[in-house]
Write a structure and sequence with these properties.
Strand order of the largest sheet of chain B: 1-8-6-3
Number of helices of chain A: 23
CATH topology of the largest domain in chain A: 2-enoyl-CoA Hydratase, Chain A, domain 1
Number of strands of chain B: 8
Oligomer: heterodimer
Distance between the termini of chain B: 6 Å
Number of domains of chain A: 3
Radius of gyration of chain A: 27 Å
Largest sheet of chain A: 9 strands, mixed
CATH superfamily of the largest domain in chain A: 2-enoyl-CoA Hydratase, Chain A, domain 1
Structural class of chain B: mainly beta
Shape of chain A: globular
Largest sheet of chain B: 4 strands, antiparallel
Number of strands of chain A: 24
Helix content of chain B: under 10%
Distance between the termini of chain A: 49 Å
CATH architecture of the largest domain in chain A: Alpha-Beta Complex
Strand content of chain A: 15-25%
């Protein structure tokens, strides 16, 4: 199949000096947003006690451990700003992402031992769920850096119980193991109760000499014998018990290496635990890249740094999506699927680090003589019409048949609306796309380049596709909401305006409410808000998107659950053979 | 030979990006047309020199209206 893949069709064009000059202000606006994101990331990195305090104790911070453990330049952090409950710690207490360790890709997660000694805090359960979902979707080993003091006892109602409590993680570990996905744990520090299960639930347990894992910690054991209320005598007993257990906490290495043998190995130094994790990772089953690569890896012909001179910060301004894609894919080449059909959507095959991926993305700009089902109005990129929805259904289904993972790019204002659109079956075709995705068991990822809006955010591989979307990236221009704030204001208050007008009442109070709602929509759709609430899993600079795509491509092809031989693939043949351009529009009456 | 650049749909001119006498290449942005609530670039359809600009900022245009002549 060399003739299909080694040299695909050229994609994109060089930027013209005039465009680069004209986009100067655009680049500055994008950089302003990213500076606020950078500041938030820095705040998260410095959460809890100072790193130096941890190091003075002879310990490494979670960030030190990650830096030592991960192959240089491969860590793609995720959920850094995730804090869905707006807890006082300002983060979920865990750091995670895609990473290569010992030459093999994995999902990596570690407790931030600077923050309440790695406690379970609000929002962490959902973070863990996302991480275990990633391991499941990508079929990647999960590596835990366990250092967990258990429930933050003063907020137990926020973390302990519920359908998605922190304990859900242990069932997810069991589920992964049942599916054949291994979980490695490097264990540090004191890990009582929930921390104990964080330690015991993985597949291979590698311990630092000072660590312990236990059903209950010293504090729990010594607190079990008061009289039902506390008094001076009881307090003295607690003090005595605590002193004892502080000296010898339950579940130490002496118990769980020497006696139970739960720990596979024990290491004197912290770094030696990480060395052992590297060794285990190096031994993980993985195909040699040549097994699945369709061509030699190549950088894009055009630099990714130019994307900020293409995507308009002004959400009303169009841009050339093909030119963006050209700056992300190997050698700026592609094979487009049905180029003349459904022009509002790009579908095609590309190479990332030599691996074949499917891409689906919204095109922008005017679409004269389209859609084909009406002459009442003209099409505009970003919206979805009948042909585009049909094309995406076809492409997703074919990717499933050919076992080609999919990257979605969203900049969508929604699906066409109105009776004309209903007659064109758009409601049904949108749900058909959801069916096609659910039925197509290949891993997917999403980049929300600008707008993720209305049902289109769902049907275009959004994170609501729980079983397929491994992670979603945001950018400086991302905004996610059910509809534009001004549209929502009109929808919410238009009848009220009529009523007030007919009653000769002043319109000012209603107008104020409309402006307030529109502002709230704006504030609650910005990139930082999206990351904090988990609408996206990380906000990244445009030029870093390719790093994540490289990680995704390597991850999905490391050890796939099913395989389509390259010479059995239909998509390249369909693309080369296609002649269908779609139907002509009805003549004007 | 002259090439006529026409409005692809009705809308309002919000910016003219070229001047008479400017040398342009195919696919260069000539002006910005606001239509369907979006700001849409209108591109040169051929290489050449801008001979005549038939519209100005804030003009409302109809579909297929002549915008610019390139020679």
């Amino acid at each position: 199949m060399r003739q299909y893949f080694e040299k695909m069709d050229d994609l994109g064009k060089p930027l013209k000096p005039a465009q680069i000059e004209r986009m100067k202000e655009n680049r500055a606006q994008i950089e302003d947003v990213m500076k606020t994101i950078d500041a938030e990331v820095e705040r998260v990195k410095n959460a809890g006690i100072p790193a130096e305090t941890v190091r003075k104790r002879g310990q490494m911070t979670v960030w030190d451990r990650i830096e030592y453990l991960v192959d240089p330049g491969t860590f793609c952090p995720l959920h850094t700003l995730y804090n869905p409950t707006d807890n006082e710690e300002g983060m979920t207490g865990v750091i995670d992402g895609l990473a290569r360790i010992g030459g093999k890709w994995c999902v990596l997660i570690g407790f931030d031992n600077k923050v309440l000694a790695g406690a379970w805090i609000a929002g962490q359960a959902d973070n863990n769920l996302r991480v275990t979902d990633m391991a499941k979707i990508l079929n990647l080993p999960l590596v835990w850096l366990v250092n967990c003091s258990g429930v933050k006892l003063t907020e137990q109602e926020m973390v302990y119980a519920n359908r998605r409590g922190n304990g859900t993680c242990f069932f997810r570990h069991a589920e992964l193991e049942k599916m054949g996905v291994p979980i490695l744990a490097g264990i540090y520090g004191t890990n009582p109760a929930g921390g104990g299960y964080q330690g015991i639930s993985p597949t291979i347990l590698l311990a630092h000499k000072d660590c312990n894992i236990a059903v209950g910690g010293g504090g729990i054991v010594s607190g079990m014998s008061p009289k039902g209320s506390f008094d001076e005598e009881g307090a003295e007993q607690i003090i005595e018990s605590t002193r004892h257990f502080k000296e010898a906490p339950p579940g130490s290495v002496g118990v769980h290496y020497d006696h139970t043998g739960f720990f596979r190995a024990v290491y004197e130094k912290e770094a030696e635990v990480l060395d052992a994790l590297k060794q285990y990772m190096a031994e993980m089953p993985a195909y040699n890249p040549r097994f699945f690569r369709v061509a030699e890896p190549a950088e894009p012909k055009y630099p990714p740094e130019e994307i900020s001179s293409i995507i308009a910060f002004n959400q009303k301004a169009g841009y050339d999506f093909d030119n963006v894609l050209a700056r992300l894919v190997d050698n700026s080449e592609h094979l487009e699927f049905r180029p003349g059909f459904g022009p509002e959507v790009y579908t095609g095959l590309v190479k990332i680090d030599g691996y074949l991926l499917g891409v689906i993305g919204n095109r922008q700009g005017l679409l004269p003589n389209y859609p084909e089902y009406t002459n009442e109005y003209t099409g505009i990129g970003g919206k979805l019409y009948r042909q585009g929805l049909i094309k995406m259904n076809e492409f997703v289904t074919q990717c499933g048949r050919d076992r080609v993972p999919i990257v979605w790019f969203q900049d969508t204002s929604g699906i066409d609306v109105g009776d004309t659109a209903e007659k064109a079956e758009l409601l049904g075709l949108g749900q058909s796309l959801i069916y096609s995705i659910e039925e197509t068991t290949v891993p997917m990822t999403l980049v929300v380049l600008r707008k993720g809006t209305a049902a289109a955010h769902y049907v275009m591989g959004g994170p609501t596709a729980n079983n397929h979307n491994a992670f979603t990236l945001g950018t400086a221009t991302t905004e996610i909401y059910v509809m534009h704030g001004e549209t929502a204001s009109v929808a919410s208050f238009s009848r009220r305006l009529v009523k007030e007008k007919d009653g000769n009442q002043p319109l000012g109070p209603i107008i104020d409410k409309m402006n307030k709602l529109a502002q709230e929509y704006y504030d609650k759709s910005r990139p930082f808000y999206c990351a904090k609430k988990g609408f996206v899993d990380e906000v990244v600079r445009y030029e870093k998107i390719r790093n994540y795509l490289v990680a995704f491509a390597n991850a999905v092809y490391q050890n796939p659950r099913s395989i389509c031989p390259q010479h059995h693939m239909m998509l390249p043949r369909l693309i080369r053979a296609e002649v269908v351009k779609g139907l002509e529009r009805p003549p004007k009456e | 030979m002259s090439v006529e650049v026409l409005a692809p749909m009705p809308g309002k001119i919000i910016e003219v990006l070229v001047n008479v006498g400017d040398k342009v290449s195919e696919d260069d942005e000539l002006l910005i047309l606001e239509a369907m609530k979006m700001e849409n670039p209108v591109y040169a359809t051929a290489d050449g020199v801008v001979k005549e600009i038939k519209v100005k900022k804030d003009d409302t245009v109809d579909s297929d209206q002549l915008l610019i002549i390139i020679e």
